[in-house]
Amino acid sequence: MTRSVLRGALAGATALALAALPALPAAAAPNDHRGPARTSPYQLGDERSAIFPEGITVQDRFFYVSSTTTGAVLRGDLRAPEQPAQVFLGGGQDGRIDARGLAATEGLLLIAGGRTGTLFVYDRQSGELLGRFSGGGFLNDVRVAPNGDAYATDSARDVVYRVPSAQLASTTSGQLTVFSQASEDDPLGQFNANGLAVTPDGRYLIVVQTDTGRLFRISTTSGDVEEIDLGGERVTNGDGVVLQGRTLYVVRNVSQAVSEVRLSGDLTRGRVVATVTDPSFRFPTTAALSQGRLLVVNSQFNDRNSPEPFTVSSLKRP
User: Fold this and answer.
1) What is the average per-residue pLDDT within 270-287?
2) Closest alpha carbon to 109 in 89, 82, 137
3) Is 197 left (phi over 0), alpha (psi -120 to 50) or beta?
4) Are 300 and 310 a contacting pair, CB within 8 Å?
5) Is 99 in contact with 71 (CB distance < 8 Å)?
6) What sign does the CA torsion over 198, 202, 205, 206 have?
7) pTM score
8) What is residue 94's DSSP assignment?
9) Which of 59, 174, 226, 263 is most deeply packed, by most CB within 10 A?
10) What is the domain range of residue 174?
11) In a domain, 11, yes or no
12) How crowded is residue 53: how many other Cβ atoms within 10 Å of its Cβ?
């Protein structure tokens, strides 16, 4: 595998453009700190269940949220915010004692199994286990590219794995294979490659390193890596990422915020144009876009003693 790391000068854009959400005013200052946004939360299951959620994905009218403590996956109805999300896949089944990032397609639900080092593949309708891919360290996020290939980040080893679409479709199990090394100068043992996005054309992945706050563009053809030049800024504590057009939302857990990064056309440069906070944030980890709203998971990892209720913030930008 070859790699090149770009650290060039910033030539940034200045406006936030997202079709699903209203844009920032043209006069907004770079890295503008905003908040609170308007929220209406979804509640997750039984208030007595210490699920400590982490990942989220949206497909059709449903959203799915993972549990880091039990490995369960909950499913909620986007049209019924008054109804708490309920268990779709029970914790501990199939050796799934931890669940982190999620990705849903029309037919599949993929689960990054955290400390199990396993990528689980389920039938999204029936909940039947179709396959599993093992051998990872700490599988943290997963995405499916337009061609059906699946990619997963390993935060312990700072790598990205790829499972080709043919393997996913064969409903068999296997070993994870390293596709790309996110960075050669980030010490292992730190919390490395984490949130993951795939561009709509499937040409690139975007990965955030939690410990350094750096963003990387990875070619899905060659595995080549380029650091996205943020003009000296970092999105430290970056956890989950959501890409819409050339706007990247970075959920920053310890920072209790979501940063909006405007990317250049070739995705090699970017500018943090705004950082959003909200009173409903409780150690937010990941997010998904749905019908003009940003759904942000509140893990409450920083409040283990009295966490209930667990929620997903639903933000509509002013």
Assistant:
1) 95
2) 89
3) beta
4) yes
5) yes
6) negative
7) 0.86
8) G
9) 263
10) 32-316
11) no
12) 29
